[in-house]
């Protein structure tokens, strides 16, 4: 018998925000790499540092789902989740494999700024797998999360990233999500953060991203790619 679930259920709107951010940043990344002039290691360091930030965000995002979300859905969803969760797990493995390969190539390119096509192509492979996964997750998993996962349990996914991200990267990540996202949703997400973060991040994070984007993209308002 499925265990009774009590309390308010998950508000999954923040997941759509995270997905939009990842679609944008990973779609723009291959061309950023290709645009670096051979041997321009100052510029390759800027682009690679940006890539490292979004790669860490992706890794922690999926790690949180592996640890917190899949077990809950399997435990509570019965036949409704029995088929889709293993598919999600398999896709995570494929994404992680592509991510590691891209990161290896990125590390070498960062210090030489040579042969940029290879890491750019590796990130295109990663993007293809990631876009497929996020579309399926939005179609199949998020409705199940709204049905089987409580609000408190859902917030534990975010806490995983919070606990394992450098503070500067975390604030920047909030700004990245807010760039195309609903600021009210982000404020709701931050209700579980310490008081200083709740007060400071809604104003600070967008400014951090604008400054970061200017350095990375040459503009404070990079293309909004959404879905």
Report on the structure:
By secondary structure, the chain is mostly helical. It has a domain at 13-164: nmb1532 protein domain like (Four Helix Bundle (Hemerythrin (Met), subunit A), Up-down Bundle), CATH 1.20.120.520. It has helices spanning 13-34, 41-77, 79-82, 84-112, 117-148, 151-164, 167-180, 183-189, 195-217. Helix 1 packs antiparallel against helix 2, helix 1 (13-34) crosses helix 7 and helix 2 packs antiparallel against helix 6 (151-164).
Number of strands: 0
Q: Regions with pLDDT < 50 over 5+ consecutive residues?
A: none
Instruction: Label the overall shape.
Output: globular
List SSEs in N-to-C order. Answer: HHHHHHHHH
- Name of the level-1 CATH class of the domain at 13-164: Mainly Alpha
- Please give the share of residues in helix: over 70%
- Measured on Cα atoms, how large is the radius of gyration? 18 Å
Helical segment count:
9
Mean pLDDT, to the nearest integer, reads 92
Look at the helices and sheets and give the structural class.
Answer: mainly alpha
**CATH homologous superfamily title of the domain at 13-164:** nmb1532 protein domain like
Head-to-tail CA distance between termini: 38 Å
């Amino acid at each position: 018998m499925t265990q009774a679930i009590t309390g308010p259920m998950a508000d999954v709107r923040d997941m759509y925000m995270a997905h939009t951010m990842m679609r944008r940043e990973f779609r723009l990344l291959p061309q950023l790499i290709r645009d670096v002039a051979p041997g321009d290691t100052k510029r390759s360091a800027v682009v690679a540092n940006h890539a490292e930030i979004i790669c860490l965000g992706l890794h922690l995002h999926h790690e949180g789902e592996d640890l917190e979300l899949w077990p809950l859905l399997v435990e509570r969803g019965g036949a409704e989740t029995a088929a889709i969760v293993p598919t999600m797990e398999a896709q995570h493995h494929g994404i992680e494999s592509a991510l590691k390969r891209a990161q290896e190539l990125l590390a070498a390119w960062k210090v030489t700024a040579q042969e940029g096509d290879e890491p750019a192509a590796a990130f295109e492979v990663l993007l293809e797998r990631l876009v497929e996964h996020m579309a399926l997750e939005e179609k199949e998993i998020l409705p199940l999360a709204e049905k089987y996962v409580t609000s408190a349990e859902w917030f534990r996914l975010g806490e995983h990233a919070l606990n394992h991200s450098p503070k500067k990267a975390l604030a920047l990540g909030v700004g990245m999500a807010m760039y195309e996202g609903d600021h009210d949703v982000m404020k709701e997400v931050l209700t579980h953060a310490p008081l200083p973060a709740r007060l400071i991040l809604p104003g600070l994070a967008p400014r951090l991203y604008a400054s970061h984007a200017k350095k990375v993209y040459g503009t404070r308002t990079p293309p909004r790619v959404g879905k």
